[in-house]
Amino acid sequence: MSFHVVVGSGPAGSATARLLAEQGRTVRVVTRSGRSPEPGIEHVALDATDTAGLTDVARGAAAIHSCAAPPYHHWARDWPPLASSLCATAEATGAVLVMLGNLYGYGPVAGPLTEDLPLAATGTKGRVRAAVWEQARTLHEQGRIRAVEVRASDFFGPGVTDGGHLAGRVVPPLLRGKPVTTLGDPDAPHSWTYLPDVARTLVEVADQERAWGRAWHVPTRPPLSVREMVGRLCAQAGTGPVAVRGLPAAVVGAASLFSPLIRELNEIRYQFDRPFVVNSSAYETAFAVRSTPVDEQVKETVAWWRERLAAGDRHG
Known about the structure:
Elements: E1 3-7, H1 11-22, E2 26-31, E3 41-45, H2 51-58, E4 63-66, H3 75-93, E5 96-101, H4 124-141, E6 146-151, E7 154-156, H5 171-175, E8 180-183, E9 192-194, H6 195-206, E10 215-217, H7 226-237, E11 244-247, H8 249-255, H9 260-265, H10 270-273, H11 281-286, H12 294-315
Parallel strand pairs: 1-2, 1-4, 2-3, 4-5, 5-6, 6-10, 7-9, 8-11
Helix pairs in contact: 1-6, 2-3, 3-4, 7-12
């Protein structure tokens, strides 16, 4: 079976590595700190901006899955050298560069997001993400690399913890019957991309030559507001409904004075103050992966969080 390199071991990188290993692929995961081996997965400690080192690690790979992301408040500084290293490694090894992207590059849009929209973001993080893809796309069009980008909305599901808007700040409180506070309007329709669907899409496009050279949206279910999603999670958990409150803009503004993360979230607050809807029909028309039914997403997420919290209680 083929050999794949996964750069990054956050929720998406870990899920992708496990899926590849389950399919019998040879998998090597690259992170700064490394990790103990897992069944079918080798972990390598390496700074992925070290192009020579990454090229050595990826020699012979069919695909390099770019699932790493610099610290949120250092994107402008840290994304360019990482992206350049990934592209240079793809060129040196001939591996397909499979990039996990997001929707920031479009900027605020009226109506559903589709892949043919211009990357017109004016915020720093949106411009950075757009530039990362444009660099890879240009090299692809020049015939120097083979590249594809997979764009996801906000991650949701097993393995998504502190970085998710429907994760650590939401699920543990509701499982205890406590109120939930969220960024923006809790009743605005919002697209949530289920993490296992992200992994399945990354793996699928790596093998599909007709997918390369463009960006695709991960198959994503029709939008549901935070309040609706919290209601479904509560129903699955059997905890009864809980209050859902939007975090006032004044509170966010005050918190941003002390928290780099909150300060950076102001740039993409528009995604939560109004409808934020992803259209993934292009991918679903062309390829096999389909979004997981919402009921299954909710069931698996509640089960994963209960196990995680119970393990913490046992060891705490």
